[in-house]
Amino acid sequence: MMLTCYRTRRRIGAYLDDALGDRASSKAAAHIAGCTRCHAELVTLRRLSAMLRETSPSVVLPDWTGFWEGVRRGIEVPAVVEVRTRPRWHPRLVAGTAAALVVGASVILWQFPRSPLTTQASAAISVNSANTSHPRGTVMVYSPPEKDLAVVWVFAEDD
User: Is residue 79, in this structure, part of any structural domain at all?
Assistant: First the structure.
């Protein structure tokens, strides 16, 4: 008897909604008629259902009649989807572009005229080195050719 009560109480909601089949519904009705505990639960659920209907506003449910047909059509006829992908970078393309940029920059920089100050200064000054009698000494002479000027530097290490 206990197992029958358990099964019936699990199905009382479906029994109230007329969602059980004929055979299961007649079994539940026969048990509820003879069992006071299951009958009390049925009465409680009916009162609760009535109170909910009274207090809740009437809700207009959407029309779902064409829903599954639309799902079926969507599955049968796949939509054409345009997929945009990012451009793919190939290592050869990147290396070739970098090499072309380096060559182009080199040609452009080679064509620029050199500054006259830098050219004259580097060509005009002569640097000479001379040996001395001192074993750890060095003499360096800087002289520009257009002027009668010489700068002599003497380096020596003292012990």
Answer: no
pLDDT (tens digit per residue) in 115-153: 555 555 555 666 666 667 776 777 777 677 677 767 666
Q: Is residue 133 situated within a structural domain?
A: yes
pLDDT in tens, 86-106: 666 677 777 888 888 888 888
Report the predicted TM-score, pTM, of the whole model to 2 decimal places: 0.35
Provide the token pair at 89: 């970078």
139 contacts 154 by C-beta, under 8 angstroms: yes
| Interatomic CA distance for residues 25 and 14, integer angstroms | 9
Residue 139 falls within a domain, yes or no? yes
Domain span at 130 = 125-156
With contact defined as beta carbons under 8 Å apart, do 139 and 130 qualify? yes
Contact 12, 41 (CB under 8 A): yes
In angstroms, the CA 36 to CA 13 distance is 17
Give CA separation, 94 vs 64, 68, 84, 99, 118, in Å. 56, 52, 22, 9, 37
- Give me the number of domains the chain comprises: 2
Residue 8 located in a structural domain: yes
